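Lab notes, practical 5.
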Amino acid sequence: MPALMKGLVLTIELSIAAIICGSTLGLLVALLRHLAPPSMRWPMTLYVELIRNTPFLVQLYIIFFGLPAYGFRVSAVDAGLIAMTINLGAYTTEIFRAGIDSVHRSQIEAGHALALTRLQIFRHIILKPAVQKVWPSLVSQFVLMMLTSSVCSFISVEELSGAANTIQSATFRSFESYIVAGALYLALAIVLKFGLFALGAAVFGRRAARVRSFGTATLALAKEAKP
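Output from the prediction step:
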């Protein structure tokens, strides 16, 4: 159990770091795709399609085994974190893009009519409602990325799956090792899921009514402003 607990801690650390870095990357790429003219969106589109249509294991191998050939050496843990961040960033880009596109254009125009700054429009009219709408999808993607961290054991990262592999190699008790690891993954997924939903309720729950009221008010103002 001490080895499994140590692996569990590393899994949690990798997951939290990847969720923070990957969601930040995804939000930035989604904003660039939203703000850039159509002719300049191809680098972001290429990144999203390339990552989403190639296996995570291949991406991990390229970072850990491929980059050293060009002079870029990273540790196994760092390679795992980089691969998880890049992979999660591509998936969250599409999720954020869907949320941003769901914000009605008239609400943004109403924000301009109310003399709000671009930062205020982005924070209050675009970002919060967009993230609120796609939060369940983000939570599911975060949980999937936590489970995907088990692939990092292929490059000798001693996270939970790596610890289970080491234990079963030493004791030849594969069933016991993996059933305990599976139970720990299940518990971690449940805790992460409910924790993220609680975070969403704390951030959006009390403000949801105000966001909807502001959206309704700005939409009505935009309609009245039309000739």
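Observations recorded by the TA: Residues 207-227 have pLDDT under 50 and may be disordered. The chain is about 80% helix and 0% strand.
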